[in-house]
Structure formats: C-alpha cells, structure tokens
C-alpha cells in the first residue's frame, strides 16, 4: 500500500503541503517496511504514506518506495 499524492492527503487532513515543515521517516522490522511524514515540531499527527509487508529496508526497496511516493518531486527531509 502506498500514497502517491502526498499533497492531496495533506489537504484532506487540513495541512499545508510544505516539505520544509515535514520530514520523511522510514521504519522497518523483520516483516514490514513503513514510510510516514512527521511534522517538524510535532504540531500535527504523522501521515502514513507507505506500508509494505514482507519487504526489508534494502536499497532496492527504498528506491522503489521513494519512487512511488514521488520523493524527487518534493525533496522531503529523510530520517532513517
């Protein structure tokens, strides 16, 4: 599952789509990989963007997920 229109999700949640105010956080476990947006200052709740079961935090997996959420278009700050 992934979201490829981050600005629309932000608008629906009542947030401005400004990459300077958010950073991208990735988390992995033995069985899944998740990507969420976290607000700088924690004024807003996290926005889930992707969740992949049976996927590990490998270069190929991250490249695929970042491509699906259009990372290059927004240049979110990454946190690992």
Which shape, going by the Cα principal axes?
Answer: globular
Distance between the termini: 20 Å
Derived from helix and strand composition plus strand pairing, the structural class reads alpha+beta
Individual helix count: 3
Would you tell me the overall average pLDDT?
77
Give me the Rg, rounded: 12 Å
Order of helices and strands: HEEEHHE
Low-pLDDT runs: none
CATH class label: Alpha Beta
Q: What is the architecture at the second tier of CATH?
A: 2-Layer Sandwich
Portion of residues within helices: 25-40%
**Tally of extended strands?**
4
Strand content: 25-35%
How many discrete structural domains? Answer: 1
CATH topology: Nucleotidyltransferase, domain 5
Biggest pleated-sheet summary: 4 strands, mixed
Strand order of the largest sheet: 3-2-1-4
Q: What this model shows, in words?
A:
The chain has a single domain (6-79), classed as Nucleotidyltransferase, domain 5 (2-Layer Sandwich). Helix content is 26%, strand content 31%. It has helices spanning 6-12, 59-68, 71-74, and strands at 22-28, 32-39, 47-53, 77-79. Strands 3-2-1-4 form a four-stranded mixed sheet, covered by helices on one side. The chain is globular. The two termini are 20 Å apart. The mean pLDDT is 77.
Task: Give a quick summary of the entry.
The chain is α+β, with helices and mostly antiparallel strands. The chain has helices spanning 6-12, 59-68, 71-74; strands spanning 22-28, 32-39, 47-53, 77-79.
